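Justification of resources, computational component.

The compute hours requested in this renewal are based largely on the per-chain cost of generating structure records like the one below. Each record pairs the submitted sequence with a full structure-token output. That output is archived, and it is also reused by downstream analysis tasks.
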Amino acid sequence: MSVTLTPGLRRLRNDQPSWLRGDVLAGFTVAAYLIPQCMAYAELAGVAPVAGLWAILPPILLYALLGSSPQLSVGPESTTAVMTAAAIAPIAAGDAGAYASLASLLALFVGLACLLGAWSRLGFLADLLSKPILVGYMAGVAVIMITGQIGKVSGLDLKAESLLGQLRELLARAGEIHLPTLLLAFGVLVFLLLVQRRFPTAPGPLLAVLLAVAVVSVFHLDQRGVAVIGTIPAGLPSFTLPHGIAPSQWNYLLSAAVGIALVGYSDNVLTARAFAARGGYRIDANQELLALGAVNLGNGLMQGFPVSSSGSRTAIGDSLGSRSQLFSLVAFLVVLVVLLFLRPVLALFPKTALGAIVIYAALRLIDIPEFRRMRRFKLSEFRLALITFAGVLLTDILVGVGLAVALSVIDLFARLVRPHDAVLGDVPHLAGLHDVADWEGATTVPGLVLYRYDAPLCFANAEDFRRRALAAIASEQSPVQWFVLNAEAIVEIDITAADMLLELQEQIAGQGIVFAMARVKQDLYAQLAKAGVVERIGPERFFPTLPTAITAFSEHVTGAMP
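The structure output for this chain reads:
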């Protein structure tokens, strides 16, 4: 796939009027969620909270122009925020000014790494992310999203960071749970689930936001220990180049940037593809690399820090019917208005309601029916989804995805190394030649083995091919005179496999067996010619079809008869 400069702009021009309501409602609700969330992620990254709001503005605009997903919400998110803090804290030495400059430079480097990947067309790596990986990944992220809200909905300041650690701490501190906080969260979640079930087209999360603010205001819950957003800092970002950074720190930041780019792209493309599968559209992996690069470059130049995509915000937008990046532009305008004029509006918004909205969105990402479908279809696919799910939960998102991709590649390689093969023969009352193992009563032509190997020939399966070809010859009841390789599934060959064919031809020739080939493609024939296989076998032993090979064999047998 090629990258283009403004696919988002072209898509926005083609928006349908019926999408407007869902996009506007999604935009307002996502804005209500991302304002406190992005401030929290800024603190997590080690910069000022207001930088989290600054870091949402350039990404929204740039991704709306350059991104290939109409639903993805980009901006600050937890994984890249944590990695930013881990990379910068050791070299910032507690200097807030230096920390902010380092974060901006790191964002620039992340952007450059992504742009280099897009220029190199490395987006194809996303093709290794199969459906089982997507389903398992989204389920794992959903569980992480849910457990990440435990502190908010319980009113506890949990110290543990891992999933199991949080659960253990919650059980140990059960007596400290703040009941009003928990009840408000429970009420919001039940309200959302009921609205989804009874009124699926209603803007449940937006209504929940308004009701939660009303409840806090009427019952003065903020004075009874229910945490609220509080004051939102004012200000807009300005164009600033990172400065005051020693060149000796650049190499360190570059290596950190590559890691953050890998994590950010993995999260970005997995989330985008998962929602694309749900929405019936496709994304362009190279375009996503380009967009992610531009987004981080923009943040690096506007006092921001590295960002990626947010599964929770994307899920919230999807739950309200977002169909285009117009929802992000609406959220952009809301954030802009809040920064300039309406900072006190969200002061009474309870954090526990945010947690309930995230839990609601996360529950929609766990696709139990798809797990069941994969289990019925193929057990290996189901296991791959479970391993991805477990990997994301027990390690971290990047390690979990890496493990799943590695297993997917191993599964693919195993199919290449040990592919299906067949000895072809006649089936009564059925036209054509078929795998004799599949049909009762099927028979081969006496003295002739028509053998098909269903994979390209290469170093990885050359020995397997030789062993199974010889086994096919040995299993024949009558003496074999000809061995014909049906090459319809062999699209290419490497030198190792070509040498194996020469050795096999020599071996069976010693037994008085003629080696021939049928249905050889022109590209494959050219490779065989360069390797000396055509000269060894003889051009006359290459047949365009299986019937012509059978006819040549019959003529050979007839001519050999006294």
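The longest helix spans residues 250-279. The first strand starts at residue 74 and ends at 75.
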